[in-house]
Amino acid sequence: MSTVFARFGNELYTGKRSYDFVGRKKIWMLIAGALVVLSILVPVLKGGFNLGIDFRGGSEFTVSKVKSTDQRLGEDAVRQVVQGAAPRVANIAGDTMRIQTDKLSDQQTLQLKEGLAKAYGVGPDQVTSTFVGPTWGADVSQQALIGLIVFVVLAAVLMALYFRTWKMSLAAIAGMAVTQIITAGVFAISDFEVTPSAIIGFLTVLSYSLYDIVVVFDKIRENTADLATSTRRTFADEVNLAVNQTLVRSINTSMVAVLPVAAILFIGAGLLGAGTLRDLSLALFVGIIVGTLATLFVAAPLYAWLREGEASLKAQAEKVRLRRDRAEAVGA
Length: 332
What we know:
The protein has helices spanning 2-14, 25-45, 53-56, 71-81, 106-120, 134-163, 166-190, 196-223, 235-245, 247-271, 278-307, 311-331, and strands at residues 58-63, 88-93, 96-101, 127-132. By secondary structure, it is of the alpha+beta class.
């Protein structure tokens, strides 16, 4: 198996085998655009994201060593204290339940603690309560937004200086934007809670996406360094070759990164009940996969499209066409 994969990678690197990422850029752009629009429309139509208590504020109760993980027990206990309430009850560990409600008075908090202890068959000391104000979540959101803006601005400036072209920087930012929007859309569709951990996951995905894009773009720069004197390939051909040459690396990197995250998401959170990891692991899982695809199908093809109209590249492409025509004439 390793020999086959090594041969596959060698054929991609030499150009013997090639996948047309750049030539079909219009198809990829349409697909990416449709996914972005869908990711924006879903939370709008649903009335927003499923925000965690850190952002909306409220009271939270944790019940440890429960004899049953039935969510209805917690819901019924809350409604006995607050008529018409819509609590959020979740099993966050093997024998630990979390119950979230709107802000309760001190008397309601004491009543609910007693009700939860009775409902889950535990002592009063196994029920803890906390209150989270919405201002804390607002502060987290503000800091995350500032961090996002600073990261994007610095990444755009540094990439423009490193690659010596703003078009490569713009294509990279577009790829990262697609990654973030689609990842957020998955959160809206799946109704996962958006928590501070999820925000950390989003920011981490930005770093991974940038790393993946820089590796591919660096290969593009290497392949196009002597393009002005070359008649072997056009600029679009060289960009496509660079994407193919780094394809195996992109697959390997994403697999190495996504496998432990998948273990946390599906085994840790799904089977073992480590619910506190679900939001972070989902952001990383989706973001890593989408980030890899965005580099291949959005960032690199977009960069080729942004530069294909340049006069020097048009002239070079014409030289390539003439050389190929002469080669075909001689072969005929």
